[in-house]
Structure formats: C-alpha cells, structure tokens
Design goal:
With 98 residues, this protein is an alpha+beta fold. It has a domain of 60 residues: Alpha-Beta Plaits (2-Layer Sandwich). The chain contains two helices and four strands; from the N terminus they run βαββαβ. Strands 1-4 form a two-stranded antiparallel sheet. It has a two-stranded antiparallel ribbon with strand order 2-3. The radius of gyration is 16 Å and the shape is globular. The protein binds iron/sulfur cluster (SF4) (2 copies). The site of one iron/sulfur cluster has 15 residues, from β1 and α2. One iron/sulfur cluster (SF4) binds next to β1 and α2.
C-alpha cells in the first residue's frame, strides 16, 4: 500500500534562506569546541572554523547569516554561553521558524 503523504509534516528545508532576519554572534574565546551548536542547528548555519582560539579549540563560524531562522537552539545548547542570536525583525509578536 502506498504511503499516505498528505499527513506528512513539512520540515524546514536545509540550505534555504530564512524569512526571518537574524545575526549570529559568537564569542570565540569562550568556546570549548564541543560542536553542539553545529550538530543541532536545523539550518546548517554553522561550521567549525579552521582557526584556533586561545584555549586551542576550533570555534564555530557562520556559513551564511541569511540561513538562520532565529530558532535559538545554538544559544540554548551552548554550555559556555559563547553564542547568541540577534533578531533583526521588527515584529515582536512573530513566532520563530522551527
Ligand atoms: S538560531 Fe537556530 S538556525 Fe540560527 S544558527 Fe542558531 S541553531 Fe542555527
Ligand atoms: S556550543 Fe558553544 S562551546 Fe560548543 S562549539 Fe558551539 S560555541 Fe563552542
């Protein structure tokens, strides 16, 4: 029997530009290179930088700010409080994308 695709939830497309405008800020010197922010970002916004910080870790770097949905996952997961998101949209009632 063919799968019923009418009830499938649509996931946010990786690599697609976000409708929400956000800016990712990374404090390189706080980072301990755990990679949580990179692994769990649903939009693949981040990658490891080839550079080392003073502690000898590779902090994340931003591939493209326009991909960021402002979901705050990286901010919530970072154990070192090294990353935060600035939302550039003006409507405070708008819900973030997944
Ligand atoms: S806010 Fe969400 S989409 Fe943006 S970089 Fe962090 S985890 Fe990725
Ligand atoms: S979650 Fe925080 S400590 Fe871990 S790699 Fe990302 S910025 Fe660095």
């Amino acid at each position: 029997m063919p799968a019923d695709t009418t009830t499938e939830k649509t996931k946010p497309e990786k690599g697609a530009k976000s409708k929400r405008r956000s800016r990712v800020h990374i404090q390189d010197e706080r980072c301990k290179g755990c990679g949580f922010c990179i692994e769990f970002c649903p939009k693949d916004v981040l990658k490891f930088s080839p550079e080392f910080n003073a502690k000898g870790y590779h902090p994340p770097s931003v591939i493209d700010h326009d991909l960021c949905s402002g979901c705050m996952m990286c901010y919530m997961l970072c154990p070192e409080f090294a990353i935060f998101i600035e939302r550039l949209d003006t409507d405070p009632t708008e819900q973030p994308e997944a």
